[in-house]
Structure formats: structure tokens, C-alpha cells
Design a protein that fits this description.
alpha/beta, 2 domains, about 35% helix
Amino acid sequence: MTTITEPAIRVQGIEKSFKDLHVLRGVDFDVARGSIFALLGSNGAGKTTLVRILSTLLKADAGTATVGGQDVAANPGEVREAISLTGQFAAVDEVLTGRENLVLVAKLRHMKQPGKIADDLLARFSLTEAGGRRAGTYSGGMRRRLDIAMSLIGNPSIIFLDEPTTGLDPQARIEVWQTVKQLADGGTTVLLTTQYLDEAEQLADRIAILHRGTIIQNGTLDELKRLLPAAKVEYVEKQPSLEDVFLALVGETGETEGEETGEPATAGTRADKKKKEEAAR
């Protein structure tokens, strides 16, 4: 029976090979309930393979894994009821509207009041105004938020996000980060795979570094930082910025030609004033 103290995800000695290619070589870690756990690694490190094993889409060659207290190999059906998986690319139907995508998934999962579920999720992910538009007109960040909203239908307690910000622009990435934080704040356990250092730093309660099929380090951000020597204070020559050059050339007085004439002060008016002052000397 699942206990409160039992981790949401437990991975012990997981191995997986594809013919002569050893992808996972004995992976171990726990994920606490209601936390964000980042699996950080470069392309080919084995992140997606591990997620596929934990989501029952692939069988491990060795080792054990439990998700939501259920063994992924022995009880795949129970595991699927507890989880949701969002892949690297948003799996939305671009012909349907955002709301229609959500209603469709709710009906496929035999949920009651699919329309209400759709409206609630649109509101939760700030998509209400866009709900009546075709998903094909959405920005990358909006499509990803809709994709995550679709994955939450049925209230899964654990969600796997496999490189959720791949191909997104900086603003869209921030939108997805905010969404992930909201999930954890609501009690959802999030296992996030990423190759972006800043993403793991921004989101994760714990970070496991997967390299060549093994976890080479696992800890909080502060614990990982303490693995390196303490920072040294050294003198570093600072090169002037364009702002420094500009202020040195035009002076830093509060009075500007724009103030005298009633016109907006600009770099040009400040430079002209400086020239006039020099000519008068």
C-alpha cells in the first residue's frame, strides 16, 4: 500500500540497451511527491528512453521502477491511470480550436462535463480568450500550454515533461516555466527532462545529471554548487560600455537641450550641447 512518505517515483538499477548500444547503465533516483525533478543531460544521454520506461511505453532490461507506488512492469495499467506524458512536440490538433482539443480529450477519457473541464483548463492556463481560435493560429508557447492542459485532464498526480521547451522562443519558454511551477504548487509531481541548464536552475527542486547512461550527480542546486571550489574574488578590468562612452562625451548634468526648448532630449541634442559648450571655451 502506498504511504505518504513513499516517493512519487523510485528508480533502482534501470538498464536498457538497443542491440550493442547501452543507453541506460544502472540508473537510480527518487522523486518526492509534489516536487519538480529535473533530469539534465545532453542529447543521447538516455533521458527520453528513461521517460518511456517510467510511462510504461518501453520495458527495461534490468532494474525496477515504481510510479505512484505501482511497479511499472507488473502494473502498467495502474501506472497509466496516475500519470500523464507530454512529449517534445505539442500534440494538439491544429484544425480544432483550443477548446475543441480539450473537449475531445475529455470525451476520450470518458469524463463527465467535458465542456466545463475545457473551460476550467482554458482559464487555468490563461487561454480563455484564445479558446475559440484554431490551435494552428497559436504561438509556440500557447500550443505548449494547451498541450500541458490536455495532459492534465483526469487529474494525474504525476506528469512527465520530456524537453517541453524545445524549439520555443525565450518568451514562450518563460510561459511554460510559469505553467510548470503552477503544477507543482498545486501538488502535481513533475519529472522534467531538459538539456538547458537555466531551465533546470529555474524550475527544479532537485537535479539529476544523466551522462552516458548513468546518474553522475543528484542533489539540490545548492548541493551541486558546493561540489565546486568556493568562488575567488579577483580584480577584473571592466571595459567601458556604450553608455559609459556616451555619458563621458556628453556630460552627466541634469540640464539638457530638450529641457530648454521643450523638445524631447535625445542623444543628438545632448551631443550638440556638448559641442556648443566646447566652442564657447
